[in-house]
């Protein structure tokens, strides 16, 4: 998320949303493959659904997955929790296209 008024709106937004909604209402976010997930975002959200392609396509599928997670969560069928793991991997921007190797695989 980008906002001219905040250095890191991606952290601030979920934190403010969590404060406003309280600890019991689930928050599920969608992210593209450029998302830099912070510990603060993970602490304030129950789940994240990510695009699986770059450039981002099939936004309807991402919304459907997020909506399904929300429905299952609200019905008490699942209790998603965010855990942040950052493996030491850097992928050069020149090969971010998921329709070609090495990311196609």
What is the H/E string? HEHEH
- State Rg: 15 Å
Average of pLDDT: 85
- Extract low-pLDDT stretches: none
Residue fraction in strands: 5-15%
Q: Give the helix/strand class.
A: mainly alpha
In the residues, how many domains can be counted?
A: 1
Largest sheet: 2 strands, parallel
The total of helices stands at 3
The tally of strands reads 2
Give the strand line-up of the largest sheet. 1-2
Proportion in helices: 25-40%
Choose one word for the global shape. Answer: globular
Ends apart, CA distance between termini:
28 Å
Task: Please give a handful of descriptors for the protein shown.
105 residues, mainly alpha, two-stranded parallel ribbon, globular
Protein described:
The chain has helices spanning 9-21, 39-44, 59-74, and strands spanning 28-31, 47-50. The protein is mainly α. A two-stranded parallel sheet has the order 1-2. The two termini are 28 Å apart.
Walk me through the topology.
Elements (H helix, E strand, L loop, with lengths): L8 H13 L6 E4 L7 H6 L2 E4 L8 H16 L31
Parallel strand pairs: 1-2
Summarize the structure.
This protein is mainly alpha-helical and 105 residues long.
């Amino acid at each position: 998320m980008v906002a001219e008024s905040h250095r890191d709106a991606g952290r601030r937004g979920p934190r403010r949303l969590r404060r406003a909604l309280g600890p019991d209402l689930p928050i599920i976010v969608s992210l593209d493959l450029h998302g830099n997930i912070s510990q603060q975002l993970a602490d304030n959200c129950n789940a994240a659904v990510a695009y699986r392609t770059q450039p981002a396509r099939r936004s309807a599928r991402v919304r459907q997955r997020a909506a399904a997670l929300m429905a299952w969560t609200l019905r008490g069928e699942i209790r998603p929790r965010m855990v942040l793991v950052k493996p030491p991997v850097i992928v050069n921007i020149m090969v971010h296209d998921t329709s070609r190797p090495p990311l196609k695989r």
